[in-house]
Design goal:
Helix 1 packs parallel to helix 10 and helix 4 runs antiparallel to helix 6. The N terminus is likely disordered. The chain has one domain: Heme Oxygenase, Chain A (Up-down Bundle), CATH 1.20.910.10. The radius of gyration is 19 Å and the shape is globular. The protein is built from 10 helices and no strands. The N and C termini lie far apart (60 Å). The chain is mainly α. The longest helix has 30 residues. Bound molecules: protoporphyrin IX containing FE. One of its GO terms (molecular function) is heme oxygenase (decyclizing) activity. One of its GO terms (biological process) is heme catabolic process. Keywords: Heme, Iron, Metal-binding. This is Biliverdin-producing heme oxygenase. It comes from Streptomyces paludis.
Length: 230
Amino acid sequence: MDATATAPHTPTSAPTPFSTLIRVASHAQHTEAETSTFMSDLLGGRLGVDAYTRYTEQLWFVYRALESASEALRDDPVAGPFIQPELARTAQLERDLAHLRGGADWREGLVPLPATAAYAARVEECARTWPGGFVAHHYTRYLGDLSGGQIIRDRAEKTWGFERKGDGVRFYVFEEITNPAAFKRGYRELLDAVAADDLEKQRIIDECKRAFDFNGAVFRELGEEFPLSA
Ligand code: HEM
């Protein structure tokens, strides 16, 4: 319109980093997840440990899908850089579930909610057929666990009396990540350097939104299973 568009202090428009695009694109859904009825009730201390257990069970199905693909994707140019052993959560979830579900038989009778089964199936499908989609699911879970996960751990310890960083909340404890803020910075650098063109990046963002939808659906089903008694 006028000269202001090319004024001396207008920075030449560097493209927005992918890590920023994906964060901004999922921001609204993140708020929805945080404020979902189930999460609010859980973190508000209004639900019993049975609800927390059921939630932890769902996580196990999702992380098993994410992490059983790790070996096959390690050398993949797109997904490979994201596979980092210090993130792995399956073993921690299994210790938590042994604590929450009465010991060595913790797997007995363990069934995913329908929304969880659909979520895990989609993760598996991406792992098999679309590394970019796998990155979307990887980001949505692990960067969240490194962030809000710490709030959930704190509330869980206080509400249900788990030992600090002990059995029941090991999922939230990343023993090998001593500086989560630095780790997240490094993770964002990986996102910014992802081997994908703009169209593929957009598809990854769309899949990230889908990942949030899956999480929302799991929360809805958990909310139905654990309604607050009026
Ligand atoms: C009550 C539940 C939750 C709380 C309190 C919470 C809290 C937070 C906080 C405080 C951050 C900011 C971290 C930072 O700026 O470095 C964050 C980031 C994030 N959360 Fe959550 N969160 C919750 C649920 C979820 C869920 C259900 C998901 C998806 C499964 C999720 C995915 C993410 C992701 C991907 C990020 C990283 C955003 C980025 O910097 O790129 N969060 N969360």
